[in-house]
Amino acid sequence: MHPEVQAYNDAQLPTDRDTCNVLAGIIDQQLPNAENKIWHRHPVWFLDGNPIVGYTKLKDSVRLLFWSGQSFDEPALQAEGTFKAAEARYTAAGQISTDDLKRWLQKAEAIQWDYKNLVKRKGKLERLK
Q: Which domains are seen in the chain, by residue range?
C-alpha cells in the first residue's frame, strides 16, 4: 500500500480506519499491477493511468467507488453520478463481503471505460475493455 494511502487510513476514526484498511488490503492483493495513490484527496487505484477503484470517507460511511461499476451487472452496487460509476457504502469492516469485492475487482480489471481521456474527448466516454 502506498504510504500516503496508509496515512489517509490512519487519519480515520477506528471503525472507519478498519474499513479502509480491509478495502485497501483486498484491492492491493487483487490488483497487484495497479498504481495506487491519493488522487483528489482520496485513495485510488489506476491501470494504465485509468482510475479503476477507490474509496473515500463520507459523513456516515466509507464509500467504495468503481469508475466503470454500472457495467458490472452487480445489484449490490448502486449507480453514482452521471457517467458509469457505481458504489457500495460501509459503516463497518464486517459489512464487506470479500467474495463480492474480489468479483467486483475482477470485473473492474476486465470492464473499463476510458476516464483518463474524458476531458480530451470533451466528456464522451469510450469503452476500453
A: 3-110 (3.90.1150.200)
